[in-house]
Amino acid sequence: MARYIALLRGVNVGGINIKMADLKDAISGLGFDGVKTVLASGNVLFDSDRTDRQAIKSDIEACLRERFGYDAWIVLVDHPTLAAIVESFPFEADRDGWHPYVLLSSDPASLDDMFAAAQSLALGDESVALGDGVLYWHVERGQTLQSPFGKLSAKAKYKSTTTNRNLRTLRKLL
What we know:
- With 174 residues, this protein is an alpha+beta fold.
- It has two domains: 2-81, 2-Layer Sandwich (Alpha-Beta Plaits), CATH 3.30.70; 88-173, 2-Layer Sandwich (Alpha-Beta Plaits).
- The protein has six helices and eight strands.
- It has helices at 20-28, 53-68, 79-87, 108-118, 148-153, 167-173, and strands at 2-8, 33-37, 43-48, 74-78, 98-105, 127-130, 134-140, 162-166.
- It has a four-stranded antiparallel sheet with strand order 2-3-1-4. A four-stranded antiparallel sheet has the order 6-7-5-8.
- The mean pLDDT is 94.
């Protein structure tokens, strides 16, 4: 049995409000075991014997669309992959006054595109690094939405394939 983490995009922001108890019930209803939500930002841990990740992802997205009535997208990772992502964070994760972020995607090409576009930005002190299936981002606290990379990552073309988590959240998920 594998431990999976479903990272929902855009939950409890922008008018998409889902109670974590309802989210847990929806995911449990798909037959997954050990379902647990972490924080109120759409992080779901569960166990499954299923190995077809694309099918799991599709089933969860369909369930969310039907149950909660929004255009749902998730990024699905297993526990060992998430542990490697956290361990590989290349910047000073606990730097005072800074946010350590990880952008995850269901389409690695979108991360490659985003990283290539970031190379032409005047990033100032913020840092972006391409990892194994993720982008690592370090930005000064209070600048997330105004920073050049923050604006790039918020573009509509990345909405259906990417999600962003603070490294502290990913540590809690582990």
